[in-house]
Protein 1
Amino acid sequence: MLNFRFRPELRMPGWKSIPFPDQIKRLLIIFIILVIMLITVRNYLMPPTFVKEGHYRAAAIDSILALPIHYAGQEACSECHDEYVALKQTSYHQNVACEVCHGPGANHVEDPSENTPSAPRQRGLCPLCHIYNASKPTGFPQINIVTHNPLEPCMSCHEPHDPKPPQPPEECGACHGEIARTKAVSHHAALECTQCHSAPEAHKKDPRSFRPSKPRKRTFCGGCHGENAESAGEIPRVDLQSHEPDHACWQCHYPHYPEVR
Amino acid sequence: MKKKRELMNRREFLRESTLVGTVLLLFGSPASEDSDSSNDNEPIHQYGMGIQVDKCIGCGQCVDACKRENDVPREPFFFRTWVERYIILIDGTAQVDSPNGGSEGFPEMVAENEIMRTFFVPKLCNQCANPPCVQVCPVGATFITKDGVILIDKDYCLGCRYCIQACPYGARFLNPVTSTAEKCTFCYHRLSRGLKPACVEVCPTEARIFGEIGLRSSLLARFMRFNKVQVLKPHLNTEPKIYYANLDGEVR
């Protein structure tokens, strides 16, 4: 075996001093080709910052970071328009950013005289948020734009940077639409909200600070549904002592849509 | 004697290969077109967003601002964020729509006396901690940054659409102009300048709350403290970083 390996005629001329078996030589050639390929791929075909931070091109982050901005942000406006910012800060529109109404203003901030933002004075702007829509959450002020003072621009009655609170709506359903709609199709349709809740007048102006009452005791429902309650005959009755005495009635029967099953 | 020569040979071979290896290391290391983003001194962020579903009024300002800020095509099929309207009818069936992403309002769809519950749900890329889109990208053109944001390398994307297929939230689309995949970046270019994402900036009711996960004194931490939050499709284990509060059971 070994004798075969070191047959002198198989050695490379230059490497004569070291014995160099043939198969290693071939392997080495393949190995070197692979290494050259790897270097070529790494240096010429693969983007330079690939795998620097992970399996991606780190330079891509820089090009994303370098993208221009269009919205300058509200703080940027206060530098020059502090009176509008101050006016809006305590108003109902405190969370409505300047650029919602005036459009993106980054280029205006850079050069105010060259790029003036628009001041939308038509009726189209405000309904974006205030048009009536059943899906809007409880308490958000909404109007019917067809009937709400048509033809006049909103500005003539409401200062856009400080819209004044109007007279409060009378009906509970104006703000509690979902509950009112649910109750309307339930067995309790005929019951007024105020039969179960006493709502202070201030609740309609400032709902979260002045909360209406809610029933607290089983005997409240018992006033109509108890065995001996003095109420209309067709109202179904239960015995308060034996009918699920450990729980409040509304833990099982949703009061705005009571069901027995 | 022979044995010894053989040993020498091996050693010689090892020396040769080490030499080659060193050469490889020297030439193989990436060329010095360095990037600033690898600045190790910067604190590592973990960005996330909270969404208070019961505050959304469906005004669509976020959709519009997102398109303007990120130059998203105006056609009604391309959105990085959009608003869905859910309507649950009295008979219990649910309807979902998002006309033009909600950017032009929601015309009445069903008569009001048929509606039981209805509300709006803003949607966007969930910036998953375990993102399926990144796993399927064949060229590493979409990736997760150190601060947890999934980005797309526009110059490297092939437009093969695997990621669009892989996203369980439908958050990606193919930009018709560049033919590359696109989606919400949390307005990464704004964050680095200390600005909020455009959708958060314009939201009039603070339905969207942006911040850093784990930072105790932040709007997002308060949002998490006061709400029971949910993520979309938790059973997929994508670990989203968009947290919804007061989410109705019907929302998918």
Protein 2
Amino acid sequence: MSALLETRDLCKSFGALRVAENISFHLEAGARHALIGPNGAGKTTFVNMLTGLLPPSSGLILLGGEDITGLAQAARVKRGIGRTFQINTLFRDMSVLDNVALGVAERRGMAARVWHPASRYHDVREEALGLLETLGLAEDSGKRVVDLPYGKQRLVEIAIALGLKLRVLLLDEPAAGVPALESGMILQVLDRLPGEIAVLIIEHDMDVVFRFAQRITVLVEGTVLCEGTPPEIAGDARVQRVYLGERYG
Amino acid sequence: MTRAVGYAADPRIRFAEWLPWLAAVAGFFLLPEYLPLGARILTYVLFALSLDLILGYAGIITLGHSAFFGLGAYVAGILAAKLGVTDPLLLLLAAACAAGALGIATGAVILRTHGLTQLMLTLAIAAVCLEIAHKATSITGGADGLSGITIAPIFGAFKFDLYGRTAYLWCLALLFAGWWVTRKMIYSPFGATLCGIRENSVRMHAIGVPVYRRLLTAYTISAMLAGLAGALLAETNQFVGLNVLGFEPSGELMVMLILGGVGRLYGAFVGPLVYLIAQDFLAKQFPEYWYFGIGLMLVVVVLFARGGILGIADRIVARARKYV
Ligand SMILES: Nc1ncnc2c1ncn2[C@@H]1O[C@H](COP(=O)(O)OP(=O)(O)OP(=O)(O)O)[C@@H](O)[C@H]1O
Ligand SMILES: [Mg+2]
């Protein structure tokens, strides 16, 4: 049995700084997997390598058994792996609808059409609107992203990713920067993510991690400290040492 | 505000969008002595439109756009003067194809780079083109320019006349075609994709867009339009000089577009109109100072009105609406 997503001895250095050291990682189809670790552990860098934003210094990335290490970002998205960003990376001056529709159109292979107006592609718009509706953003579809509260902007990040119909979804701190009052709606959305998508979530809030994840990987200074089920991780002495005295404890 | 494009935008042509065409037709009848200037303005509007597509919509900053304009002008000019090809439509086609080929070839390099590197490369390409035209005197005429261009009647029926009537209408017809195609493109999914790349290319990569390929397509189309404009200039002036190439005309074009307003389609209409009229009138009155006036105007626009002249107009209209 092979994993849906697998890395083998993935390494990354920025000059002398080693931010990933021999990361060998498995993600099963439909998994709910969390990646945790202190600030600067290399979590975002790991996601950047998985999506092709950064090339690894060495090692392999396999998706469904296929080596995707050398593929461009776009080619990886077409094979079903994508992400959200820790810091909002949105089309701020465009409407919420367009933020989602651009991705939907690309996935449907019609984003390069030059003849008919975009508004004639009703199926793209309907799909994007439907998605926004399931996330509780239907009423905001015509607003510009900048005009939304931060919590809703984070939801747009997720909406865009869902519009890509991914097999592997990498969520980089989906609730980062969201005030406590608004974070509830994000957790709700996480709970309702389609079961067939394999989700890897990076998250600092341990309550969220333990509620959401079936498996947890702990990354410290670029190396995998340990991996296991939530109870195993909670009981692991090394993990407690890393987190002891830290604010996430 | 610039008009939104995208999946909820209404693509129908509004009344105000017909105004430039009405004005152009009215100009034909009312200002017969200015038709040569008019043809020049229309040509530059087409040129500016081609820049707006990549600068205003796709966000590619270039100071080398004259390479395509100049190549178009020289291809049309050389074909007509040296090889006896005189059909105006054929000359335009040849120029557009040549400029498109140069667009693919140079775009393939510069669009892999970013920021200052990209800007410098565009500048270098324009400089190389200028140098080639300068040195290849036997075919380009070098510093003396290329003369002896004869153009057959359009469709075998409409001769280029002394008063510039045919030239004006020919330019107007081609500008209309160029505008129509560009406008269609901007409202299409492709146009929305370009805006997305301009707004946030990191995000575009992350949603699976082959950014480089899309930019190359836009760049090539833009190059063809610029080549078309260059060929128009050659046909209507029946002369091509080195001043169509190099940094200066590129910079001048950029100034025109910024004056009119970047990324709003009609900024490309207003900019060259204001700039070339100012040049024509002021240069006669104050040959030494007119450029100062243009510079001042540019400073004011860049400092106080980021949307150019059209941006100012938008704000005035918005204010007026409040009080009505
Ligand atoms: N492009 C880069 N160039 C140089 N160093 C980098 C670069 N990107 C990240 N780093 C460094 O690599 C290390 C890991 O960063 P990364 O963003 O992956 O951490 P993280 O685990 O996501 O942290 P956080 O929890 O704060 O988001 C940090 O020390 C960071 O400063
Ligand atoms: Mg991070």
Protein 3
Amino acid sequence: MILPDLPIGETVESGVYWLNDKFGFLMDIFSNIIDILISSFKDALLFLPPFAFIIVATILIYLISRKNIKLAIGSAFGLLLIDSMGLWTLSMETIALVLSSALVALLIAIPTGIIAAKNETIFHIVKPILDFMQTMPSFVYLIPAVIFFGLGNVPGLVATIVFAMPPAIRLTNLGIRQVPVELEEVATAFGTTSIQKLFKVELPVALPTIMAGVNQCIMLSLSMVVIAAMIGARGLGYQVLVGIQRVNIGQGFEAGLGIVIIAIILDRLTQSLTPKK
Amino acid sequence: MLMGLSGSGKSTLLRCLNRLIEPSDGHILIDGDDIATMDDKELRETRRKKLSMVFQGFALLPHRTVIDNVAFGLEIQGVSKEERYAKAEEAIAKVGLKGYESSKTSQLSGGMQQRVGLARALATDPDVLLMDEAFSALDPLIRSEMQDELLALQDKMKKTIVFVSHDLDEALKLGDRIAIMKDGIIAQIGTAEEILTDPADDYVSEFVAGVDRTKILTAENVMKRPEPVVSINSGLKVALQLMKKHGISSIFVVDPEKTVKGILFIDDAVAAVKDKKTIQDVLVTDILSVKPDVPIKEIIPVMSDSSSPLAVINENNKLIGVIVRGSILGALAITEDDQNDLT
Ligand SMILES: Nc1ncnc2c1ncn2[C@@H]1O[C@H](COP(=O)(O)OP(=O)(O)OP(=O)(O)O)[C@@H](O)[C@H]1O
Ligand SMILES: [Mg+2]
């Protein structure tokens, strides 16, 4: 059977060039913002020498996690291990990437989730897009990122942001939709404006669910930041990649262990932030 | 006071009053303003300042402490933190929850949660309180306390309270007027007596069947017209003739202002006629009398101790009615017969 050879590839390519041509300046601005974000996080994280950082971080984790002593001590050990493997700077870079991408992703995802919860039309537009996004293998996100932003930290971060958004949008939407009708009625009956209702009733009541979305967003960011090493993102992911390419088992394993430690700390910390129901 | 079987539309009606549910027709007037046609802004102001609601399912905000729940309405109005906490504490004290200000609402018992909901509604000092089974989760003691508190509040502040209740005794105690609902329609609205003595239909009379009538019906409801009476200036013969004509054994004696002077018994009268005495000579001045609003429950023991009839006297000491044993039994029996007809 002979089917016509559809010029899908060519069409997309010319479309991308067109976009690049017309909106290139916007992408430059976006790219600069992300660059600044990453380097400020990185500078902040590397401001203190490792040992001082670990002490401060342990105390902060202890306070943030509402006096979870186990988590604080565990984190201290993990961070010490990372330092002793000589992965300190790379780890801080990875954390900076995770924090930047999660921050941007949440800044987009939470408002989107709120709007989707309030507006059925938006919800019906957003939902199939989210479904589609979640069926795509993660490294597919790298392709458009490379096309628009070239190689390096910025495209890695863009891919990560896009990849990490869906669960945060979903769970924010879900959390707000699950606010009991009677509580909505309480707000209405006492004469709230829609803004007051959102901030004084809906968001606080939905907070546990939204925090689950925040947690997933951060965890997905971490996994994607590692994969984004393929398009030039730095940090521990790059170390793993190099380990694979050179078949250097030791180096790859150490970097992998560092990622696991960071993952556990970030996961437990965001979970302990979630208010108990 | 709204009553009716489950699903009869009590909550729905209550929700129409603050437009949590849009009424499809009609007017809701508060101080002459029609809530049903207000725009969003006016409606919001009215909800903030004039209306507040106690919810059937408590509906406390789970992320807030007791005091922050109670202060919610004030917070929405933009009242400063100190002021709203002061008012909230007052409301908390009113419902007897002092000391629980900073507790989590989930740690409280059902009855306590209900009182937090009540305090939240009171804190904004609204003109109109909408209360949906506001006392349903309280134990009898606190319930009765809260009822008294509510009555006192209404007395002092002259608030309008629309109260949904399943409890007939509560409705009778609290309600000036009671509306009985059926299938989304008000079957009858009126005072407790009106509903008990003159039910609009079978549904209403069945609904109020279980009520202890002796607590609700008063002297006024069961008394007969004060006829015949005899003037203190008339002769004994006139009195005897009246008694014979009406087939009674005693008669009240009044002065021209209709003030009761005493009671004349037939035996005394007959004897007196022979001795050529006057009414004044054989008058029994020590009579039993009650005010018209005394419940029958309190009258029954008085009557059972004596065979003479009871005079019903208003605040000007005028005789407005007479109660004999038969009239009480009659009043109670008639309504009971009605119920038997239904079943
Ligand atoms: N006037 C009405 N018009 C249309 N539907 C009504 C009307 N009144 C009540 N309903 C419907 O009847 C149902 C039950 O009403 P509602 O919740 O007010 O009952 P209720 O009397 O408060 O019962 P409960 O004692 O169990 O709280 C609701 O689904 C409501 O939509
Ligand atoms: Mg109801």
